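Rotation project, supervised by the postdoc (A.L.). Task for the rotation student: set up a whole-complex structure prediction and record inputs and outputs verbatim in this book. Inputs entered:
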Amino acid sequence: METFEKIYTDNYEAMFRVARKMVYDVDVVADIVQEVFIYFFDKVNSGDVVRYPKSWLYRATYNKCIDYWRDKKRFVALDLLDSCEIEEYNTDHSEMKAVLNKAIDKLKPQEKFLIVLYSEGLSYKEIAEVTEMKFSSVGKTLSRLLKKIEQKLIYQYDELYN
Amino acid sequence: MNCITNESIQRFIDCETNLDESVLIKNHLSKCEQCASRVEAQQKLADDIKLALSEHQENYIEIPKINIPHQINRRRPVLKMRMIYALSAACLLSFFVLTFPNKGDFDQDEITMLESFDDDFDANLPVDQQKMMIHVVDPTGKVTEFHVK
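Outputs recorded:
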């Protein structure tokens, strides 16, 4: 089995990127990733066998992000979308990205996680392993999600310009 | 040929189709302009999503250094504790043995009854017709013998 140090150095950046796409605050992201690796270290040290460390880490990161959102919702009655600094975007291209991000944020957490994994360039096999979804249904779910985002984009553009 | 599904388009743009499937899709796309534009639009949307999500990403992610605590042998303290318990028990036992030694005298305070049958036991007779002998031992150790017919 790989050593903890190797798993840590190999996967830290990927976990950071995923958490960053799920939660926008960099400091919170660093805390989340640190907690995930501490949890992983304790688990391995207590004698538990983790067959696929990378998949386990992705899932743990996602769960920690969900925990963070729940805590945030409990104390702050603001929408998650408010944290996106849409006003900062000036050019048309940036505006398009902002609108797209807004549409992605409107998805359910597990849907957003799927899109995040997809944007990370994971193969369908890896996505299925992480999300515990059937391999055969990954393509179908992704195409539906893309359609859903497209619909939300159309709706947002209508809201903005009509 | 029927037009290709969104799922097939998605798998095609993600290079997750097998060889036969991709040949079929490519053949269809060369003939169907509508599907070709759908593939193009879906590809663009997927690329835009990836680009939009990477908007928040840092160019360089610093990996914080970790200090892994030394692996302690958890078995050793357990063995040490077991040895302490065993030694304590042995000390306690030897204390009682030395303080209250066994005097070896007969210290019976109850009557004991031992029943037995005679040697000429006839297995063909019922139990109530058998000759039985009862030995009664009183607290002083005196044995009294009773014969029951």
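Student's summary: The helical segments of chain A are 4-22, 26-45, 53-75, 92-105, 109-119, 124-131, 138-161.
Supervisor addendum: Residues 21 and 51 of chain A are 26 Å apart (CA to CA).
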